Amino acid sequence: MITKETLFTNWHFMRWLRLGMGFYAAVVALQLHDPLSGFIAALFLFQAMTNTGCCGANGCSVPTSAKRS
b or e along 31-53 (b: 16 or more beta carbons within 10 Å of the residue's beta carbon)? Predict the structure, then answer.
């Protein structure tokens, strides 16, 4: 379930970009009656709302603290 904290915090450039691409794809899907564009729009909007990407939440990020041996 999406919490209020997830929806309203940590809005960075990539999250805004996914939101914009999702809205654009949704408009294209409605204009062209294209189900594939609608699916892509739903995917981008879901990623923007839940703050996830292809790899999940921070799945591709590099750890900030590294132990030196």
Answer: eeeeeebbebbeebbebbeebbe
